[in-house]
Amino acid sequence: MAALCSEFGDLVQIKKQLISVISLCKERGLVHSVKWASELAFALDPLPKNELPPPAIFTEEDCQDLDAFGLAKSYFDLKEYDRAAYFLRGCRSQKAYFLYMYSRYLSGEKKKDDETVDSLGPLEKGQVRNEALRELRVELSKKHSAGELDGFALYLYGVVLRKLDLLKEAVDVFVEATHALPLHWGAWLELCNLITNIEMLKALSLPDCWIKDFFMAHMYTELQMIKEALQKYQSLIEAGFSKSTYIISQIAVAYHNIRDIDQALALFNELREQDPFRIENMDTFSNLLYVRSMKPELSYLAHNLVEIDKYRVETCCVIGNYYSLRSQHEKAALYFQRALKLNPRCLGAWTLMGHEYMEMKNTSAAIQAYRHAIEVNKRDYRAWYGLGQTYEILKMPFYCLYYYRKAHQLRPNDSRMLVALGESYEKLSQQVEAKKCYWRAYSVGDVERMALLKLAKLHEQLNESDDAAQCYIIYIQDIFSCGEQLEHAEVSTALRYLGQYYFKNKHYDEASLCAQRCCDYNDAREEGKALLRQISQVRDQTETSSTDLFGPLSSNNTPVRRVSPLDLSSFTP
Amino acid sequence: MASVHESLYFNPMMTNGVVHANVFGIKDWVTPYKISVLALLYEMTTSKPIALQERRRLNKLILPLQQGPDLTLGQFLKTVGECCPQTAYAVKLRLHEMADGELKDMEYFFATLPTPFRAIDSEAYKTSVVGLFMRHMLLAYNKLSFSQVYKLYKALQQYYHSQFAQPGVSPVGIPGLAADNTDMDLTSTEDTMGERMEKDELDTTPLHESDLSRGPLSQKQAEYFLARQAYLLKNDENKALKPAALQDELNNMLKFNPDFAEAHYLSYLNSMRVQDIFISTHSLLHYFDRLILSGSEGKSNGDEGYGRSLRYAALNLAALHCRFGHYQQADLALQEAIRIAQESNDHVCLQHCLSWLYTLEQMKGSDSSVLTEDSVKMAAHFCLPYLASLGIQSLVQQGAVQGKTAHELMDAMKETDILHWKHSLSELIDISLAQTTSIWRMYGKSTMAQQQAQLLLNMSSLEQVNFGVHQNNTEAFAVILCHLAELHAEQGLYGAVSEILKHLKDQFPPHTQHAKLWMLCDLKIQFDRAMNDGKYHLAEPHVTAIAALNKTEGLYRKALVLKALNRTTEAYSILQRLQLYCEKTKYTEMIIRVMLATAELHWESSGFATALPLLLQALSLARQHHLQALASETILHLAFTQLMLGVPDQALGVLHEAMEPVLAHGAVMDKGRALLLAARCQVTIAGAQVKTNPHEKSAQTLGEAAAYFSMLDCKERLRDVHYLQARLHHTLGQTAERNKCAMLFRLLDQELPAPGAAVAMRL
Question: Is B141 on the interface with A (CB under 8 A)?
Fold first, then answer.
């Protein structure tokens, strides 16, 4: 923490660095990195005039290439990449060289995209590839081994390698690029996409720079290590980036991932206040609104985004969610399809579309959509879970086990998968496995607070009354301690069972307490009263028969119980 | 991986959320290779007369070229050149014209192709194989847009120049490839050609398999590839691609077209080969996920819609767990399949489920005959001959084990055979023959068993011979060959045995499903040999191996070894345990064998009287189950016991009963032992009498026995025989013979390590 503070101590220095890197990236047409750096720079206090960093030094070569570079850059901005590359071919400055290679790369990418539309056959579509990549790789690797590449060129080299599926080499080159030019966020982001697990992350030797903290935080979010990510972001905020919309959005997404809906919603609202025309991450926001069924807010968001730009993936997803919430599932599916048309790489849309088809009872289409989602990303646990649900709806509990297991593998600590697994096992009358699942679901922190209830009912079925009572007790404690008003029907079942249980075991005090509580609920009132009557009856009998002998004894020495007494007095429902 | 997929996520042909597997409705498209094939066809239809033989060879080449994956130009020209160098040159010339010319040359080429609709009398008529191909190609070509045509032309140029950039690779033809084609008739019309083609597929396989991993296959090519590999997997696994190579190929195919569901199924089959439960489950489920999509158009949960594939998906999952021996899982999956099938009234599927159910019960080791009978009845009712006779076969098997009368079993077999031939269920015919063989063997009729085995091996299968492969890697074949090996071993023909086993090893490599059969058979034979030779230390390691494959058998053999090593107490306790176990599982054959072994143990402690009731019990069991071989074996034991108890007359009488079947069907070893025993009885009866007649007779019997033993090279017993012979000759006063026998005895006695069990004390 101390190291972090000292690093971030000089915010002015950071601001200076950002401003200079913005101009560097701008010259080279790296628009996304420019955007990121500018957002961050905007979050910091403006510099006084004398503190502004001097413009980059002009070398002799830069001077020579100035005209050609200016011309090429204008062509580049107009997306005439081949033309730009043509005028840059003789230039020798690093800047011009990067733009030269970059335009060749982009030209190849553009042609590839165009080509996919009219390839010779459907199967050949997978074959279409950027023809320029190989040449670029050869040239860049030559320069690379000669050590002539600067940070930007290294980044480009890494991108080329990644596109050629040479992932290991790409990682090495990106690491080198971050060392050469730590401030270039694009290189970090590319690196982020290539790292698949925490061991891999730990094995890398990264430059010690303030930007590394941003990277680590981002990485933790990607690897679903939300706690660590939140910690990182928090310390970044404390260090002075509190106004950064980037960090706010990242934290919001992180909260979304751990399903802390209230926090996430609050952050997103803040984000929209600060940056009302922002479209990024709004799909996540709409997911949250959807989960909370906040119709007016979602509707407002959807209309607002349509006004800003209706042909954005995020907008389509928001509208899809909006229609889904209004139960217009056909329209919702249509909008998710549109999102996919706009960006086929959009992972969430396939899964969401699957959900829509599920709502429409079109199971086969749902399976199709989920399968697509899995094809895009094998680690998409929601799609696996969705497939499991589909088969569960088709009444194939054994079949869906496989899918739930897959989902569980991907999210070992998510109670929903475990509860689903438990339900399937229960349907297959595999009570032992079901019990294990429910207990585990409770242990990892049950989101829906259903696992314990189900476990208790299972114990009840199996006549394991002690275990059942234990579960009900924890369940009730759980429900009341979380303070939220959940559906009461289940609490009353628990109380009813507990009352009977204590009654059978002759713990009349606890039984009567439970019975009284039962009376608070409509559906259990009658039974509660009946139980109270029974208790008083039994008490009268015992008192008449054994007052003199056991009266004083029984009041003092209550027998040792397995079940802890139910202390309901501390909370009021 | 990811970058390859990027362009595939979106499918413009999506309707109602369902993407059709074939996006553009085209199964084939034009590639430079296809242009070369077209050029070849063009040359063949238009050009000057080609020599008849060359023409025939070219005709045979057409189908593989059309269906196979794309070849490089060099390979293509080489293949063609091998058939007809002149045509190959012409094709090359035509391609050269196009590649070194301009775009219009290619356009001109397509314009001049004989249109199948016009050319009525040529081979390229629209209904012929060639015509169909040409129509496909012309249609595909005409659909191309401007830029696509240009791209195709570029690709053609590249295709041509990648081959002829380096000089010297000109198609050198080898005229007169082989003379074996001459027996074919000369009228080669297009239709018959197709079938003949398939037969010759085998010769052209290297042509396909050498470069499978290049480029994407068109739908047609992919279908052909999958069909071929699946067929090979089913019928002759060794000819299919190696598991790893096949998986690579499938992955490649799926990379370019993830919607190609059949590839997932093949991947499932392939990973079953290597016992990979993970991938096989994954692929199976993936296949059915995809299948559910394609079968769903406009149909709801009905008979034909995806409800059907759901049921079969669950059923297949059950089958998969069965294969891996996860009985509980299989049971659950099966219950699920049954439940959904019941809900949708799918009787056919229910029947399949039922037949799996009894199979599962059998595998679990419980009695399932009631289920099987039900299954047979219902299957017959719903006209499912395959399932019905499968059920009957299963019943026959159970019946045979439970001791149903032979004629009942044979009648049932006969009736199912009629059914098989009527519906040409060749697979079941094979099984039926194998089953008959097994039953005959169980009854101890080795000649009949041998005859049935030969019948199966020499029968030409009813099934079409595709891809030059006969169906010969089924379980039936493995069983038959194992029986043959054991039968030969019984007759002491160990050379033949090793040849059969070698064949088995080639045909069923150790990792395959049925390999355990021959492994067990091999071990048993080796064990028996070692025991007969008295090399118990050699037999011992086999016991562990046998136990790994079959627990009961392993335990029994262990007892045998212990008995031979005189560790009586241990052997006895094992035998007791085994008997209890076998009585529980109703494994009659083993029960009898265990009883015999126990009786032998009693002999060793001279408890001949205690052995008698055991043997009688064994005899009645054997007779009840018609196990002739075991019955005769028991009689031998009985006779020996009686001999030892001092009633040689009775012994000889009993022995005569068994002599005939032993000599007719028994193993060489048994024959020798029976004869030896007979001689000993005769000698004892003759006893002190100095009559020559009976003694000479017994000397003769002994000679025969010696012949049998020497056939097996069974020295210990040979020694016993020589000893008896010497004694006999001594009694008869034939000194020269006596001395000769005595010398033989001496020689063997020196050679053998320790004096084994006393001569008198063993059978």
Answer: no
pTM: 0.74
Axis-axis angle for helices B494-507, B515-532 (nearest 10):
160
Question: How close is the nearest chain A Cα to the Cα of B140, in Å?
Answer: 9
Q: Kindly provide the ipTM of the predicted complex, given to two decimals.
A: 0.72
CA distance A357 to chain B (A): 8
Q: pLDDT tens across A290-327, in order?
A: 888 889 999 999 999 999 988 888 899 999 999 999 88
Inspect the interface and report whether the beta carbons of B7 and A126 lie closer than 8 Å. Answer: yes
Interface check for A365 against chain B (CB to CB < 8 A): the answer is yes
How far is the CA of B146 from the CAs of A94, A247, B134, in angstroms?
40, 50, 21
Final residue belonging to a domain, choices B432, B455, B478: B455
Orientation angle between helical segments A329-342 and A313-325, nearest 10 degrees: 170
pLDDT digits (tens, 9 = 90+) for B716-733: 788 888 888 888 888 878
Flag whether B496 is in a domain. no
Contacts of B258 in chain A (CB under 8 A): 375
Domain boundary, last residue among B163, B180, B198: B163
- Name the residue among A126, A165, A395 with its Cβ closest to that of B8: A126
| Residues 161-200 (A) with a CB less than 8 A from some CB of B | 162-163, 165
- In-domain check, residue B531: no
H helical segments located in A313-380: 313-325, 329-342, 347-359, 363-376
Kind plus residue range of the DSSP H or E element containing A34: helix A31-43
Beta-carbon contacts below 8 Å between A and B: 133
Q: Tell me, what amino acid is at A92?
A: R
Q: Which residues of A161-195 are buried (b: 16+ CB within 10 A; e: fewer)?
A: bbbbeeeebbbebbbbbbebbbbbbbbbebbbebb
Whether A376 sits inside 8 A of B9 (CB atoms) is yes
Answer yes or no: is B575 within a domain.
no
Considering only CB atoms, which chain B residues are within 8 Å of A371? 286, 289-290
- The residue range of the domain holding B753 is 667-762
Q: Do B370 and B431 belong together in one domain?
A: yes
Read off the pLDDT of residues A125-171 as tens digits, 9 standing for 90 and up: 445 566 778 888 888 888 888 888 888 999 999 999 988 888 888 99
Nearest to B5 among A118, A368, A376 (CB): A376
Q: From chain A, pick out residues whose CB is under 8 angstroms from the CB of B31.
A: 120
| CB-CB contact of B429 with B420 (8 Å) | yes
